[in-house]
Queue: 3 jobs
Job 1
Amino acid sequence: MADVVSFYKKLPTGPAPGFKKPTTPWGKYKAAYFEGDNASGKPLIHLAIAVILFGYTWEYQSHLKHHKDH
């Protein structure tokens, strides 16, 4: 029983420390748009824009390769 008591005496007391602010780009993006009161649908708009830009770039590169061969 003394081992259990000594274990619990070593644990920190008081309130838990606060969370650190995220430092990675994904962590900052997640904190800005997904967590807490800031949660919104903007990531869906960002995803749509990314898909459109990726698709346009892919089509443009394919178009250039097509004209290179003919």
Job 2
Amino acid sequence: MNTQRGSIGFNIMFAIMLVAIGIMLYILLGGKNPFATSTNTIVSPAGIVDDAAPSRDANGEFNDGLGAPDAATTGELDEYGAGIAAIDVFNRDINSDGRIDRITRTRVENGTDHFYYEYKLELNTKNGYTDITPDGFRTTEGAECALRKLRFVFRPAFRVDTISREWSDTWITPTMATKTTYTFRHGELNASDAAQMRVVCDVADLF
């Protein structure tokens, strides 16, 4: 009887040692430690920018800060190439309340080399989505130069920077650009005073 008990005890200890060795090998080979204290990590949507992020992507295209859309729809243009070309929807937390708000970007073509992006911002409230879009929240895009651009920044706090300039003589005639920043306060987006920057053709160069 004592021999059987000793044999059982040895087998149990041997099994425990094998399990311990297996766990150590798993951790050493790059596995996750099962005994480590877990932490909650919030992963931001791809492309969302902070102050340090570049204003142009790897292809040199202007980056408006919204990242990859959560839903995208392609429209049909008329025989002249005018109409709604695309609608992109972004699920983003605008006011840091833990609710997923909504930003919609619509590309509108007019049948020429010029087009514009129109933005709509909606807060997710207990009563449904509430539109908080300021007036004129859209770009002005030319073939060579943009006269108005918007860029969304989510960290450290949400804001929208807009840089625009007046048209003069031709689309490529440089004029003085001004910058306005919209920040979220008291349930709405509030605009700062416009600040002069410098004379440019393409305002995208100033972000």
Job 3
Amino acid sequence: MAFHLLQRDRSGGVKLADALSQAMTEVGHCSECRTFTEHDVCNICSNPKRQESGQICVVESPADIAAVEATSILGSLLCFDGALVST
């Protein structure tokens, strides 16, 4: 990616660098589920409908939360565990 940006899209590289720099300083972890957010509590955890469901879906990473959310079929709270759970 770096070679492509240097050779063909330097302005895009600058925009990407700025966006990454901003994300590194402004994005933290949700105090409830530990996913990435710009707020103390993420949009999923602050949604009252999610809390009413009484269901929790535990996933390994914030990327998994995004994947589950993209399906739009689960109405439960999502919790980023950060480690695999074996049964």
